[in-house]
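Sample intake sheet
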Amino acid sequence: MREDRLWSLLSTGVAIAAGVTARKCAVKAYERQMGKPPMNPDDPDVKWRDALMWGAATGMLAGVARVVGRRAGQEAVRRARGTSRARKVLDKLEP
């Protein structure tokens, strides 16, 4: 597997994990604030407004977390590559 693909998979995995974690945190925050689990948007007793607001809120949080996670993963890749490149240069300079 090429190094670029490996790092791309790593940053994608970090982004997905960040999105899942953000959604779980949103559910926990709702439960703590309201004293009950969040409503199921598919339930016919839930108003459209409430279902859309919950979907928008969790979607936004998960999206932001994915962007932050992907950027953090890419930054880690850049640092790792910079370190390995610096080592290669230093190895060439040593007698």
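Comment: The chain has a mean pLDDT of 78. Residues 1-37 form one domain.
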